[in-house]
């Protein structure tokens, strides 16, 4: 009896000790909350949604919350105020912040998209489209000083069109309202990201005639940024975040359009799988994504050239201060 009692006590103690260990272990494994302000919700950011849906962030110990924050200026405001930890928007926004004299400025620590992701949508069908077809027309281009509008200007000039004389670019309509304004009858053309461009086509309101990104060249079009102090104080979080994004990029590069579409389908409940496959293919066909998160100096400088071309930049910002590649794999193309 005494032996049985002793065994019972020992077993009980082992169970208690094991439970205590598990509690300690689980506490150690608690996910770190990271809030991310994304400038728009588009299939253009497929690698990010792959990382989210396949649990790559959680594998790295991060509980990532994606918060839709339309407009790069709104994204940077959210990051600077501390409402979010990480911003995801055009890197031009970080240049504006730096040049305004912000001491705890925003640093780009990972790139995702390598060109503009918008498509030029025409109200009427145009076979064999060339950019001379926009002369004398009205184009809804987005906010003045925003990357979509500036890349549009660059693309027009690259094709012999003077944005200030040959066309009328409407910059009065907010980014999130551009598709609705076009459906409502405003403009002859509009630049739209996916899935909005395909939806406009399917509803019979317009026709995709060109990719703005193909004409704009390689730039860190959409990148991840955070306050300089946050990166310095939380390098392990930034490293884990970048690791997850890189896994998402690798997945997209190594899987079919259908596989990618199925993986991110939950992110786009109003888009059918077949449509999502088409959109992934459309973005893949224009070579939308970097193969690593590394931001090259040449590409960062090109974005500043585009800004100067649009008369939105008086002084260039230093690459050495606004880009931190310490968390990225080697270089990309």
Key features of this structure:
single chain; 333 residues; alpha/beta; D-Maltodextrin-Binding Protein, domain 2; 2 domains; globular
| Strand composition percent | 15-25%
Major β-sheet annotation = 5 strands, mixed
The CATH architecture term of the largest domain is: 3-Layer(aba) Sandwich
Rg from alpha-carbon coordinates: 23 Å
The mean pLDDT is 91
CATH superfamily of the largest domain: Periplasmic binding protein-like II
> Tell me, what's the shape?
globular
Number of domains: 2
Number of helices: 15
Written overview of the protein:
The chain is α/β, with parallel strands linked by helices. It has 2 domains: 32-115 and 219-322, Periplasmic binding protein-like II (D-Maltodextrin-Binding Protein, domain 2); 119-216, D-Maltodextrin-Binding Protein, domain 2 (3-Layer(aba) Sandwich). It has helices spanning 2-28, 46-53, 56-59, 72-81, 92-99, 147-158, 178-183, 196-202, 212-216, 228-233, 235-254, 257-264, 273-285, 297-309, 319-322; strands spanning 32-38, 62-68, 86-89, 106-113, 119-122, 138-140, 168-170, 189-192, 207-211, 222-227. Strands 2-1-3-10-4 form a 5-stranded mixed β-sheet, sandwiched between helices. Helix 6 (147-158) links the parallel strand 6 and strand 7. Helix 2 (46-53) crosses helix 12 (257-264) and helix 12 (257-264) crosses helix 13 (273-285).
């Amino acid at each position: 009896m005494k032996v049985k009692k002793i065994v019972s006590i020992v077993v009980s103690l082992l169970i208690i000790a094991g439970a205590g260990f598990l509690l300690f272990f689980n506490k150690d494994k608690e996910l770190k909350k990271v809030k991310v302000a994304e400038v728009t919700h588009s299939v253009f950011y497929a690698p990010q949604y792959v990382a989210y849906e396949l649990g790559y962030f959680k594998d790295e110990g991060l509980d990532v919350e994606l918060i839709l924050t339309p407009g790069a200026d709104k994204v940077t405001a959210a990051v600077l105020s501390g409402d979010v930890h990480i911003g995801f928007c055009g890197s031009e926004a970080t240049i504006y912040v730096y040049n305004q004299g912000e001491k705890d400025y925003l640093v780009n620590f990972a790139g995702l998209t390598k060109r503009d992701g918008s498509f030029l949508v025409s109200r009427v069908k145009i076979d064999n489209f060339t950019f001379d077809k926009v002369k004398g027309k009205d184009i809804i281009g987005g906010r003045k000083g925003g990357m979509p509008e500036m890349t549009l200007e660059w693309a027009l000039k690259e094709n012999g069109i003077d944005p200030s004389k040959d066309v009328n670019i409407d910059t009065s309509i907010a980014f999130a309202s551009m598709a609705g304004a076009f459906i409502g009858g405003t403009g002859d053309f509009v630049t739209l990201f996916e899935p909005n461009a395909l939806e406009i086509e399917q509803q019979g309101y317009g026709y995709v005639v060109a990719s703005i990104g193909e004409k704009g060249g390689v730039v860190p079009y959409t990148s991840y940024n955070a306050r300089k102090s946050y990166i310095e104080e939380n390098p392990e979080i930034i490293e884990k975040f970048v690791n997850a994004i890189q896994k998402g990029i690798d997945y997209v590069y190594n899987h079919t359009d259908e596989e990618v579409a199925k993986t991110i389908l939950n992110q786009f409940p109003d888009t059918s799988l077949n449509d999502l496959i088409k959109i992934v293919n459309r973005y893949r066909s224009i070579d939308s994504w970097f193969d690593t998160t590394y931001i090259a100096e040449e590409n960062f400088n090109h974005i500043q050239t585009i800004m100067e071309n649009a008369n939105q930049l008086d002084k260039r910002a230093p690459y050495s201060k606004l880009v931190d590649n310490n968390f990225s794999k080697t270089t990309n193309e």
